Amino acid sequence: MSSSKLLRGTFILTLGVMLSRILGLVYVIPFHPLVGERGGALYSYGYVPYQIFISLATAGVPLAVSKFVSKYNALGEYRTGYRLFRSGLLLMTITGIVACIVLYMIAPWIAPFVIEEQVKGNSVHDVVTVIRAVSFALIIVPVMSLIRGFFQGHESMGPTALSQVVEQFVRIIFLLASCYIVLRVMHGSLVTAISLATFAAFVGALGGLAVLIWYWWKRKAHLNELLAQDRGQLHPPLKEMYKELIMYAAPFVFVGLATPLYQLIDQFTFNRAMASIGLAKISEEAYSIFNLWAQKLVIIPVTLATSFGLTLIPTITKAYVADDRKSLRKYLNQTFQVVMFLTVPAVVGMAILAEPVYAAFYSYDPLGEQVLRWYAPTAILFAMFSVTAAVLQGINQQRFTVISLTLGLLIKLLLNTFLITKFATIGAVLATTLGYFVSVLFNLWIIKKYTNYRYGFVFRRTVLIGIFTTIMSIFVALALPLLEALLHYKGGRFDSMVIVVVGALIGAGVYFFISERSGLLTSLFGNRFAFLQRKKAKKAVS
User: Fold this and answer.
1) DSSP 454
2) Where are the domains of the chain?
């Protein structure tokens, strides 16, 4: 693949992922007032088990299939990749149907672990209904993932990007429309509305699959031409091909499982722990705030930071394979610095502006503000876990990702109930933070062990970033009461949005200015901000 085609494909795929994630965030703004806290909790009860099943069925499949097809296409063995694709379609269809049946059947077993009898709100039957509604998406999504990987292996990123955006768009339209019709037009039950909201995953998958089928027929002639050029010298058995595919996909399965497994622990322990300390009445409200509404906001800086940081992983892999220690050290330095540079000020700013941020997206809620303020810093660990896991993949030590995730989950499981009984909802946040902290420390240790990498330089840069963030925080903290007084702030959505936008602009402006003046910006991003230097030079001349 030419460098220009590679860049174009990467840009298209990245754009598709970003648009899909933006849509996945924006829909909660109208969804929250429609279903409220109880509806949010019920939605999460259904979606967490589904995410685990879908991660097991599809995480890493597009990338693994892409890598496999690309490898054999480069050898001129086009039919090998096509054989895997055809057999994979049958296999993914069967596994998807089996996964759907299994999740549908075990829903009555899962539900009693979720709901505590003392909790006033959703019932066991409600949870069973919602889990069963979302299970149908498992029939389509695995097949769709395989087709996406096949197109990517042929250096075609457009089908994946467009299908992701269409899938998300169709899902959200169906979700919001069905909830609105059921609750506001027909005055139906909340359980029916949330069941349709989770069933929207199936409808969205149909939309994404339709896009891929359209691309398939459009490009079928070209694919047939490639098959006609097949060299026909390699005939690996399907068993060996699937073994190779699993080796590619396995690391991404575990990274994809991280968040759903943490959420599953909360799903099985949170309500019971809250009930044990006499907080059963607010348990589901607190659960939905922590595990759905606040979590959606915390992921924002993670997405931004990892999008930049992960672009350097291929260069890390290349340097490691070539045993170029100097380049490897340079790329690791840059990766970790970029993640910290983007994440630290974002999460600190979110913590300072927690009250208006939560009110701007949802509604004024003291508990929502408190949870978001404590939860925001955990985003640093979310980002670092994703990046360090990718680095381990780059240096061919991906097996340790399984160990680090297991250690983190054990910490979460052991401490969750205890910390919730001591600190209520914040206890669940602390348990998640400690679990990810242990996982990240372990990953960093493994990276050091196998690359002889030293963290001294990154540590010093992180301290510098911390100082810049502190200065930024002072400006934002001083501006906050002035903005509140000017707007006569009482928690309204519009006023909250104004405060968030102005506060973010002040914080970003201060942080950007200090970083540029100190040379940190140029050090991290090279000539991307060279126009600032030209402006300063012009001013000096004039």
Assistant:
1) -
2) 1-236, 253-542
435, pLDDT greater than 50: yes
pLDDT digits (tens, 9 = 90+) for 57-94: 775 677 678 777 887 888 888 888 888 888 888 888 98
Q: Are 336 and 458 in contact (CB under 8 A)?
A: yes
Q: How far is CA 60 from CA 57, 66, 250, 391, 458, in A?
A: 9, 10, 7, 16, 30
Could you report the per-residue pLDDT of 475-516, keeping only the tens digit for each? 999 999 999 999 999 999 999 999 999 999 999 999 999 999
Nearest partner of 443 among 485, 483, 393, 516, judged by Cα: 393
Which amino acid is present at 357?
A: V
In this prediction the pTM is 0.86
- In this structure, the chain runs to a length of 542
- The tens digit of pLDDT for each residue in 257-299 reads 888 999 999 999 999 999 999 998 899 999 999 999 999 999 8
**Biggest CA-to-CA distance, the chain:** 76
Q: How many angstroms separate the CA atoms of 260 and 55, rounded?
A: 9
3-state secondary structure of 118: coil
Complete DSSP assignment for 84-116: HHHHHHHHHHHHHHHHHHHHHHHHHHHHHHH--
Confidence of residue 1 (pLDDT cuts 50, 70, 90): very low
Residue type, 503: G
> Cα 18–21–22 angle (5° rounding)?
85
3-state secondary structure 247-278: HHHHHHHHHHHHHHHHHHHHHHHHHHHHHHCC
In order of 202, 251, 314, the CA distances from 95 in angstroms are 16, 20, 31
Dig out the tokens for 522 from the structure. 């140029």
| Percentage of the chain modeled with pLDDT above 70 | 90
CA distance 234 to 257: 35
